[in-house]
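Standup notes, structure subgroup. Blocker cleared on the adenosine monophosphate input:
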Amino acid sequence: MSSAPPRFPEIRRDVVFNRSVIFSPARSRRPSDFKSHSPNKSPNPNPNYSTPSCPFCRGREHECAPEIFRIPHETDQWKIRVIENLYPALRRELEPSVLGEGAVIGFGIHDVVIETPFHGVHLPDLSQAEVGEVVVSYRERVCQLAKNGLLEYVQVFKNYGASAGASMTHSHSQIIGLPFVPPTVSARFDSLKEHFDKSGKCGLCEAHSEDILINESNHFSAIVPFAASFPFEVWIIPRDHASYFHDLDEKKAIDFGGLLKLILSKLSKQLNDPPYNFMIHSSPFHLSPPHLPYAHWFMQIVPQLNVIGGFEIGSGCYINPVFPEDAAKVLREVNLTTS
Ligand code: AMP
Ligand code: ZN
Ligand code: ZN
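Run returned:
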């Protein structure tokens, strides 16, 4: 791969999601000119500010659905709460059963992780250790769900900003446990298997080349993937092969928290506090051992800078105006110490 970006469009194949992505450099904008048009500036910069209607603020716990656990345990001065979702997409109390051809009862788990007691504080405003504790709370909950024999896959995700799907402004993320393996996850494994069968390599172990690298921590690399579907998309990948997110130990969770904080801070500064989604892509719970050599968990962070249009919906191909090498260079060079 050359370091000087080509001036002509390029089609790249993403071996992880099995997608083709068209890189078509924006005619009028340099990579460093990309900014969000719908930034999410906090409604009140005072971190202790609590909106009268926010059930996620400390002191309003009674307005929430039941709590699963809090960190630290058994204190009013909680830092993180994992609670049931009041309006769940799937219902935990239902008995899984078949309704008819192609339809089963909507059994599943839908939880909310309240990442801070304070309304005006966002995830990257927390310290590295505190972001690490949020990651530990995800891990604790996924470990609990892994013991529920009815679940096949768990998705941890965050919506930040209204145009990224968030309905609540208080910093939070969500966890959904599914009684089946979703099709994009199966497609990811099929594609990674095909790559492994051809090359003998895990597509994520080998995804760290220098020109797409943004930052590294002791155990993780943050990259703009070679065939990123979205401008300034970032993946945070464990450098050592690891199949399951919930096998992460405490030390690595804090290390991961530091890199996540750094990347979210850089995206916020460079792109004008854009709406974003992040997703932890782990492996299905009941994966058989032959699949493990190419099952490698990672986090995908997608700033929402473009609207998905008819071509993307129709073809499943994405058009990305920013070459990954250029986005990685811009993000590598963001200086968080200057305003
Ligand atoms: P989002 O829509 O991504 O901002 O996620 C917020 C989630 O919080 C939604 O899925 C809501 O159903 C859920 N939610 C809203 N109010 C409450 C509440 N009082 N207790 C528990 N969950 C809630
Ligand atoms: Zn709040
Ligand atoms: Zn790997």
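Discussed briefly. The chain has one domain: 10-332.
Next: hand off to the docking folks.
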